[in-house]
Design a protein that fits this description.
Shape: globular
Number of strands: 8
Order of helices and strands: EHEHEHEHHHEHEHEHEH
Strand order of the largest sheet: 2-1-3-4
Oligomer: single chain
Distance between the termini: 39 Å
């Protein structure tokens, strides 16, 4: 994994799984409850399971709040809990340790979000700019960008697939899952409309991030993501890269360098200072913490929209 991921220490492997909602308010084992027991790989998957499952599911997440999901290593305890669950919801090729644990688990219902929508390649070619960064996605998903949840339309497609899987695996509550899925998709459709309307008329269409996570979002709303991914967060950006960014920023009217909540802002602030730009947060929503600009997926996405509108000069 690339070096920027090393800033967040992994949570102790034997730590109890944290609760993410009223459906999982304690750190009980993932299996053997009186509900449909779902293990989710990280926050975007857990959020779907909770929203769709409602009162009928018990959801545990393999990734602790505040832990960088790409760094996750599954403990023996978590593997055992996975094996006792009724279903697992994950995104294959994002977290290798999860993929291995799922393959060995024998869980009856395994739901791979990557199969529920189309994945595309986003990397060095994003936006047509010459990007001098490593293609993180090539490591994560065989060249395919895994960050599908940041596009409300693709996330809705995944939600529909998850709902159908829950209905099949737990038919006694199929009607509730169907209704909850429809309600969630309706909210995601409304969020998509907010982004469409909010980013339709802007002074610039280019934004700079330290993490190449927003390719799907950029493509959906006619924007260009310029990522600095691959630079060591603890080192200074190269002079050549800073000059390239300065030229690009002037040419495209860029005002802001975005960083994310789960990693250091040092690289973003260094580049912004050298290029005379501002910094702000654009959250890839890989986890919700006290530093997040919102309590759940929707509120953080709305904060992301406001940040983009400000940076791009929305009218």
């Amino acid at each position: 994994m690339n070096v920027r991921r090393r800033l967040i220490p992994a949570v102790a492997a034997a730590a109890a799984l944290a609760a993410l909602s009223a459906c999982s308010t304690d750190s009980a084992a993932a299996g053997n409850t009186d509900k449909f027991d779902v293990v989710a790989s990280f926050y975007p998957m857990a959020f779907l399971a909770e929203q769709i499952g409602g009162d009928h599911v018990h959801v545990t997440s393999l990734t602790q709040p505040g832990q960088e999901p790409h760094d996750l290593e599954i403990s023996a305890k978590q593997t055992a809990q996975l094996q006792e669950s009724d279903a697992v919801l994950y995104l294959k090729n994002l977290q290798p340790s999860v993929d291995e644990a799922v393959a060995q688990s024998g869980v009856g219902t395994t739901i791979d979000a990557a199969t529920l929508t189309s994945l595309e390649e986003h990397g060095n070619e994003v936006g047509g700019h010459a990007a001098e960064h490593d293609d993180e996605h090539g490591e994560e998903a065989g060249g395919k960008d895994p960050h599908i949840w940041l596009d409300p339309v693709k996330y809705a497609e995944v939600a529909q697939g998850v709902g159908a899987a829950f209905e099949k695996a737990d038919p006694d509550h199929a009607a509730a899952y169907k209704a909850n899925t429809a309600a969630l998709v309706k909210r995601l459709d409304a969020l998509n409309t907010q982004f469409e309307d909010g980013l339709r008329n802007t002074d610039s269409k280019v934004f700079i991030t330290t993490h190449a996570a927003f390719g799907y979002l950029a493509e959906r709303y006619g924007l260009t993501e310029e990522a600095i991914n691959g630079l060591d967060p603890e080192s200074e950006p190269s002079a050549n890269r800073v000059r390239d960014l300065e030229r690009m920023a002037k040419a495209d009217g860029v005002t802001t360098v975005f960083y994310e909540t789960l990693v250091s802002d040092k690289t973003a602030k260094t580049i912004a200072s050298d290029a005379g730009l501002k910094t702000d947060v654009l959250d890839p929503i890989e986890g919700i913490t006290a530093k997040s600009r919102g309590k759940d997926y929707f509120s953080v996405q709305e904060a992301n929209l406001k940040a983009l509108q400000s940076a791009l000069g929305a009218k």
